[in-house]
Design a protein that fits this description.
The protein is 15% helix and 24% strand. It is of the alpha/beta class and 854 residues long. It folds into 4 domains: 189 residues, no CATH class; 77 residues, no CATH class; 172 residues, no CATH class; 180 residues, no CATH class. Strands 7, 9, 10, 18, 20, 21, 22, 23, 24, 26, 44, 46 and 48 form a 13-stranded mixed β-sheet that branches. A 7-stranded parallel β-sheet has the order 19-11-8-47-45-27-25, with no helix packed on it. A 5-stranded antiparallel β-sheet has the order 3-4-5-6-49. A hairpin with a 7-residue loop joins strand 32 and strand 33. The protein is globular, with a radius of gyration of 35 Å. The relative contact order is 0.12.
Amino acid sequence: MTMRKQKNFRIRRQKGSALLVSLMIMVGLSLLGLGFVAVSETESAIAVNERNYVQAQSAAELGCKTVIEMFQDAPWANDRGILPQNTQQFKTLRTDGGNHDYYKPNAGDFLFDVPLKGDRTNKFFGSDYKHADVTINDAAGAKATTYLDKLSKMLFYTPAGATEKLRITDIRVYSPPWPGAVVDADGYYDSNASTNPRYGVATIRVTAQKLVNGQVRAERAVKAIIAETPFPTVDGAIETAGSLVGQGNFAVYWGKILSAKDMQVNRPAVGMPWFDAKNQMAYEYGSDTTLERQSSTNYRASDAYAPGDLVHATEAAIAVDPDLAKFAYRCTNAGATAAGVPLQTDWKKVVGQSFVDGGVTWTAEASRPFDIMTSSTDFYTMYNWLTQLTGRTLEDPWLHARARGTLVYNNNGTVPCNDNTNPHPCDYNDRTQLVTARYSNFFQNLITTDPGNRPERIEAVFPTMDYEFWKAIAQSASNDPGSGIYYFSYAGDGTNNLFTGPGGVTKDIRAWLNAAPNASGKAYNGLGPGFYFFDTQNGKNPQFGKGGLLTPDCALTSGTIPDPKFQMRGYIYLNAAHFGSKGIGNTPLTDVYNMPGEPYRDVGYREVDDTVTPMKWKLTGGALPAGTFTVVGADNGQFDWHDLNGNGQLDVWTEDITRNGAVPFTRPDGTVVNTPTWVPVPWYEGCTVPDPLATPAVVPAPGTGCSEPHEPYANITYPAQGSPASSSKIEWYSNGINDAQAPSFRRSLLRTGTNTVAPCLAATKNSECTSNSYDKDGALVTLSPILWGVLYNEGGYDGSGNADYYGSLLMRGDFSATGTPNVWFDECLARGCLEQQLKMQRVMVSSMETDNTQ
């Protein structure tokens, strides 16, 4: 009995152990299962994080490439709404010694647009992303947040109600690497402390985030350094390293003619008056200016000053107290001046204070930038040159001819002004000379450049093309079908012009050159506009005696052109012995093309502080007279202005300086003008700028209107569409122009079809018609050119017949033309429009870093 009990007890104990073991195994398996679950969740989290990382990285790369595209074509980016507004909220005030400025301070300019270099305002100086010239992030304000949200929405598709999204959160643009440059205390490069070249145009840094339910899950930054693509420059209608001889009726319009030897110009058109080889007539004197205080009798025949008349202190007073030059004095009470001259102490140096001069009350205000120094001997500044020019008709305002050797015009070899030794034989140096009859746009013997800002000579130098460089560009890019750059090897026998081009196809050069559209809209040559490089016979460099053999003459005639219509488009690089045209029949395309834009004086404008109400002049160093005015845009190679009302166009207000003929004025040449003559009213503190694009339109009350700050320009009434060779008139028109009067002054800039343009009314936008405002592009006129672009030839030009060219002809050899061909300069080429026309890249990426933290 006892033994049985023990056995049963042991059995019971063993059953308890099994239960415990089972439980332990179950717990272990559960823990193991939980471990696998945890591992699985961790792997899932890692995968999600990796996905967020990759998405944020890709978003940053796309954002960076988008900014690069803005540099490639800023107008294109603006049209598509991705270009940021040029506002000071997105820019940093840079310090560089005595300079305090912004990148592209002219609010009317596009950010990241050409020019990409030149004046410091077109360059970037920030040494790193913490001191970027352009910074767009949420910290920059509501405009920046709105822009980043808009850009992100355009770049990344986010379904409605989605909890996850990608967003560009930070865009910074600053200086490219600059070895040896000194960084000042504020983090900007000192532009005067290094002569080393920059490694590019700009550094771009873009940050993107992956957001889930508004929370940041990943953030990455990408940095790229971009450099300008070294395209050849073009700034003249004809340029030759040889002599230039034009016989018959050969004519050049609208641009510069340059010869590195002697020149014979066949069309001696009078252009803008030139004081020297660099400066045209200084018509800023009269544009935004004051006259010295004179006796009433000398000032106006009526022997009285009228309210609004503006003067500066006498030159004698300014010589004693230079601070007086910072003030102008407005007549606030009409009358005749005192018999004597105001005392030195009479002139007030506090804005708003007044003093009495006989019957006239003068009230002090900020000075104008271009005081006419009537009692000085400086020819450039002592006359009202604006009135000398306004109302005049010029044969060709843009034409100027420059020769390294001697220069004559007409077939009879006439020497301009009968002085064949002076480098500027028709120097405009006498106020009595008529601007409509003085050939001051002719220059010769330009073998050197004179020092200073008023040189009589600027050396005439032919812009050499580097054969090796452009051949390498063409060969490397020809493998990319979308590059628009093509290489052609010579396949002839030395007597013909066969070339092998894209796809290994061999054609006559005349077939390859024809980029005109056929009936279906495709180019006859199958390529369209582009950069065409036609090599030498033996593929060797023809320059500097390196053995290259030029190909046979390329002569265009109606019998040798294989297609019914013909036009070269783009940049053509030839290595032919001669190029020319000899009777092309009706093969050219007839269409409308832009005349040049209006001439301007690149002297800058005084900056206005538009962050305060009412707006004031921006002064450095405190109030007047201690403070100094800030000048924007001088000598930067572009027209500058300040968009005070934010409507995207320069708004100009004009006034009749003769008061409907009641107050005649005398030009410096002595002629009296007693007919209405309209000129722009410069901006002054307290005035009203018109805004025709506002709703309702802003129209200043009488006596209160003014123009937005801008550089002086010569407003032009262009010839009609069908009269491209006609003269142009320098004039402004009344603010009250109506639709019936508009066609007399305004010309279309809007092409509506082949050789058709939109009509111009009084209220037509400035972007669609020429206007009182500055017109960057000239009127559309009808031409029939066989070239739209640039043609460079390593040889010379030898042509006759009646061909027209729109663009530029560059010849290393002699230029000899007979017959009636015409060259019309496309001024847009000098502004980089060739790249835009050809869809070629303005900039190239020299370096890109992903996952950037610096």
